[in-house]
Amino acid sequence: MPIYEFKCSKCEEFFEVIVMGSQDDREVVCPKCSSKEFQRVVSTTNYAMASSGNSAQGVHTQERTCSSGTCKTYTVPGG
């Protein structure tokens, strides 16, 4: 079951959608504001071998130069 992460273009809420089999054609909307305008976020793999006690919380952004100008990468915390 793939989990897709999105960032709402209207309210900037981050949310996840779990896709199960034939459901990958279902309509995706923001759970906070019901907007249909969003960006797909490429998330990083997040796992821990042991508890470190100081894991970072929240969404982080990184800006870089791309062929089309400036691009942003969003790092969304996972579980």
Task: Explain what this protein looks like in three dimensions.
The structure is a single chain. This protein has strands spanning 3-8, 14-18, 38-41, 60-66, 69-75. The protein has one domain (3-43, 57-75). It has no helices and five strands. A hairpin with a 5-residue loop joins strand 1 (3-8) and strand 2 (14-18). The radius of gyration is 15 Å and the shape is globular. With 79 residues, the protein is mainly β. The protein starts with a strand and ends with a strand. The model has no long low-confidence stretch (mean pLDDT 74). 0% of the residues lie in helices and 37% in strands. It comes from Desulfobacter postgatei 2ac9. This is Putative regulatory protein, FmdB family. Residues 1-43 form the Putative regulatory protein FmdB zinc ribbon domain. InterPro entries: Regulatory_FmdB_Zinc_ribbon.
Number of strands: 5
Q: How would the global form be characterised?
A: globular
Radius of gyration: 15 Å
> Are there runs of 5+ residues with pLDDT below 50, and where?
none
Helix-strand sequence = EEEEE
The count of domains is: 1
Task: Figure out the total of helices.
Answer: 0
What is the average of the pLDDT values? 74
Oligomer state of the chains in this structure: single chain
Strand content: 35-45%
Report how far the terminal alpha carbons are from each other. Answer: 15 Å
Main pleated-sheet profile: 3 strands, antiparallel
> How do the strands of the widest beta sheet line up side by side?
2-1-3
| Class based on secondary structure composition and strand pairing | mainly beta
State the share of residues found in helices, binned by percent: under 10%
InterPro entries: Regulatory_FmdB_Zinc_ribbon
Pfam families: Zn_ribbon_8
Organism: Desulfobacter postgatei 2ac9
Protein name: Putative regulatory protein, FmdB family
